[in-house]
Amino acid sequence: MTTQKHYTGLIERYRDRLPVSATTRIISLNEGRTPLIQLQNIPRMIGKDVEIYVKFEGLNPTGSFKDRGMTMAVTKAVEDGSEAIICASTGNTSAAAAAYAARAGIKAFVLIPEGKIALGKLAQTLMYNATIIQINGNFDKGMALVKEVANHAPVTIVNSINPFRIEGQKTAAFEIVDELGFAPDYHCLPVGNAGNITAYWKGYNEYATDRVCGNRPVMCGYQAAGAAPFVAGMMIDNPETVATAIRIGHPQSWDFAWAAQKESGGWFDKFSDEQILAAQKMLSQYEGVFCEPASAASLAGALQDIISGKIPEGSKIVCTLTGNGIKDPEIAMQQCADAKPVTIDASLDAVKRAILDCL
Ligand code: AN7
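Above: the input record for the complex with AN7. Below: its predicted structure, written as C-alpha cells.
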C-alpha cells in the first residue's frame, strides 16, 4: 500500500512553477484545491445548453482567494527577512495577510476604510491579531498611503502590486485545467483591483505555452456599476457598491487587466447592486452555494451574456466565486428579511403545525 502524502497547500503542489527553492520555508495553511462545482439547476432554469462551473474560492482557509496570493507573498517576505507586512484592503486581503502573518510569526498592519468592510472580515482580522488601522477614506486612498509608508518603515507590501501575490493566485487557473483536462471557453470573474484577472490570465498562458492545455479562455471581467473604472475606461474617484470587496476606483493592475481583456478577446461589463444581490441569492437558493456579494458579479455577468447569446450555447464556462458568503452576514440577513424565522411553542403539536403549514 502506498501512503498518500497529505495535501500541504498550493506552493508544494505547484512548486515547479513558483519562485521557491528547496530550502524555502513555506508559510501555508493548506490553501488551494478548492472545489469546481458544476451548476445543475440554474442552466436548466435559463433554458440554455451550457456547462457552468463555479470555482468556490470561499472555501480557502480564510474564506477567499486571497490566501493563494498570501501564502506566496508571506513565504517570500519571510525568506527575505521581513518581520512585518502591510496592506490596504476592502477586507479579504486584510484577513489573509493577518492569518499568514500569524502563521509565520510576523506582524501584520492593515489599512481599511472605516465602516466599509464586511463584519466577518473585520472579526477574523481581529482574531488573527493584526494591527488594524481604520482610515476615513476609501481603499484607493489606503493603497496610496501604504505605497508611501513602505518607503518610511520596514514593512513589506502584500497587496497584489507585490508580484508574488500574482504568482500564488495563478495556481487557480492551473487547478481548473488540471481538473477539467482543458481550459474553459470563458472565464468570468469579479474585478476590483484587477490582480485576480491578471493572475488567472498568467496561469492560463503558462499552461498553454507549455502545452498543458490547447486553449485559453476568453476573459470576462465584471464590476459593480458604482465601481466600474474598466467599463468607464478611466479611473473613478468615489466608488460605491453594496459589494464592498470591489469598492475600488483606482485598480492597481490596470494595464495587466486590459492586456488580459485584449489578448483573450474578452470584455468588461458592470452590474447594479440589485443584479449582484439577485445572483448571490439565486446561487444560494438553487445550487446551495453561498458566496459573498462581490463574488456573485461573476455569475450575474455570465448569466446575462449567456442569455443574450454573447456567450454561445455549447460553451464551457468557469465563474470564480472569490469569497465566502458567511463573511458578510449583514447583507445575507438583509437579503432574507422577508424570510423571518417563525417562533412557536416548544411542543410537538406546534412544530407539526409549523411544518404542515409550509408543505
Ligand atoms: C471577494 O481584499 O481588494 O480584482 O483588499 O475580496 O483581484 O482585486 C478584494 C478584492 C473580488 C476583486 N472578490 O479582486 C481586498 C480586495 C472578492 C474580493 C475581489 C476582491 P481583484
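Notes for the reader.
The two ends are 51 Å apart (CA to CA).
The CA atoms of residues 351 and 357 lie 10 Å apart.
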